[in-house]
Design brief:
- This protein is an all-alpha fold and about 325 residues long.
- The protein folds into 2 domains: about 1-160; about 160-310.
- It contains 10 helices and no strands.
- It has helices at about 10-35, 60-85, 95-115, 125-155, 165-195, 200-210, 215-220, 220-245, 250-275, 280-300.
- Helix 1 runs antiparallel to helix 4 (about 125-155) and helix 1 runs antiparallel to helix 10.
- It starts with 7 loop residues before the first helix and ends in a 21-residue tail after the last helix.
Length: about 325
C-alpha cells in the first residue's frame, strides 16, 4: 500500500531539518574535539549558572553556541512532528517517522545533559565517558535515521514491512548492527585522539601498543580494523540486497553506500596520517553520517511493501528427440 506524497513545503522543510541537524551534530563534535565541553561548567540547561554568560571564554562560547543551535533543532523537531501529524492521515509512514524523529531528539538532549551533569567532558578519560559517548553515537544515528525516513516517506514511498523479508531482512539487519558497532568504536577512537593526542604517527602507534596504554588507547587501535572489515561486509551485503530486491532505488542506495564508504575509508587514512586534526575529524564524521543515511535509504527501499523480489527461474531441460 502506497500513500500520497506530502506537500512540497513539508518535503523541503523536512530536508532542511535533516541538513540543519547534521550541522548541529558536527558542531557537537567540534565541541568535543576542542575540549570545550566544560565551557558551561557542570550546569544544564543554564551556562555556568547564567541563562546568558556575561564574560564568556572561547570554550564557553563554543559550548553555548552548541546549546543554542541544539535548542533550535529541538524546536524544528517539534514543528516537524506537529506538521507531520496534522498533514498526514493516520498510518502514513511520514507521520510515524516524524514522531520517532522527535522522540530521538528528546533522548539526544537528555544524553547530552547527562554527559554535562556527570562531568564527562574536557579531560575526563573514564570508561564511563566512553560508554556515554557510545550511547550518544547510537542515539545520534537513530535520530538521523528517523529524519532521513521522514524525507523518504514524504515523497510518497511505500511503508516498511519488517516481517517476512527473508534473506533481505537478515542482510540489512546485519548491516545496521555492523555500522552501529563501527560508529561506537569511532566515537571511542575520536575521544582517544582528543584526550591522548599523538606527536607523530610512530608515537601514536607506540601509544596504542604500549602495555601500560590507557583503555581508550587500546580501544582506539580496534577502529581501523573494524572499519575495513565492516566496510567490506556492508558493501558486499548491499550488493546482495540489490540482487534479491532489484528495484532502481535499492540499486542506487547500494551504489551510494559503496562510493561513500570508499571515501570514508580514504578520509580515515588521511585522518590517521595527519594525526586527527579537528577539521578532518569533522569530515570523517560527516561521511560516517552519509554512509548511515545511505543504509537507511537501502533499508527503506529494500524492505518496502512494494519492493520487487527476485524470482529464481529454472531453465527447462532440453530433451533430444527420438531418432
Amino acid at each position: 500500500m502506497t500513500h500520497a506524497a506530502s506537500s512540497r513545503r513539508f518535503q523541503v522543510f523536512s530536508l532542511g531539518v535533516l541538513v540543519y541537524s547534521l550541522g548541529v551534530i558536527l558542531w557537537g563534535a567540534f565541541v568535543r574535539a576542542t575540549g570545550s565541553g566544560a565551557g558551561c561548567g557542570a550546569h544544564w540547561p543554564v551556562c555556568n549558572g547564567e541563562v546568558v554568560p556575561r564574560a564568556p571564554t572561547l570554550q564557553t562560547l563554543i559550548e553555548y553556541t552548541h546549546r543554542l543551535t541544539s535548542g533550535l533543532a529541538m524546536v524544528l523537531a517539534v514543528a516537524m512532528c506537529v506538521w507531520g501529524v496534522r498533514a498526514h492521515v493516520k498510518g502514513h509512514p511520514a507521520r510515524r517517522a516524524a514522531v520517532w524523529a522527535l522522540v530521538f531528539m528528546v533522548t539526544e538532549a537528555l544524553v547530552g545533559a547527562g554527559i554535562v551533569l556527570l562531568k564527562y567532558v574536557a579531560d575526563n578519560a573514564s570508561v564511563g565517558r566512553a560508554l556515554w559517548m557510545g550511547v550518544h553515537l547510537v542515539n545520534t544515528f537513530l535520530l538521523v535515521g528517523a529524519q532521513t525516513l521522514v524525507v523518504w516517506f514524504s515523497r510518497g514511498r511505500a511503508p516498511l514491512a519488517l516481517r517476512g523479508q527473508g534473506l533481505a531482512g537478515l542482510l540489512l539487519g546485519t548491516s545496521v548492527a555492523g555500522l552501529l558497532l563501527l560508529g561506537v568504536s569511532g566515537a571511542v577512537a575520536a575521544l582517544g585522539d582528543t584526550l591522548f593526542p599523538a606527536e607523530s604517527l610512530a608515537h601514536g602507534l607506540s601509544q596504542d601498543m604500549s602495555e601500560t596504554a590507557h583503555v581508550l588507547l587500546r580501544l582506539r587501535v580496534m577502529h581501523p580494523v573494524l572499519a575495513v572489515f565492516v566496510g567490506a561486509l556492508v558493501a558486499l551485503l548491499a550488493r546482495w540486497v540489490a540482487r534479491v530486491r532489484p528495484s532502481p532505488e535499492v540499486k542506487k542506495a547500494a551504489t551510494a553506500i559503496v562510493i561513500v564508504y570508499a571515501a570514508q575509508l580514504c578520509a580515515g587514512i588521511v585522518n590517521l596520517v595527519l594525526l586527527a586534526p579537528v577539521w578532518m575529524q569533522l569530515v570523517h564524521l560527516l561521511l560516517a553520517d552519509l554512509v548511515w543515511m545511505s543504509l537507511v535509504r537501502l533499508c527503506a527501499a529494500g524492505l518496502a511493501t512494494d519492493a520487487p523480489r527476485a524470482v529464481a527461474v529454472s531453465q527447462p531441460t532440453s530433451h533430444a528427440e527420438p531418432v
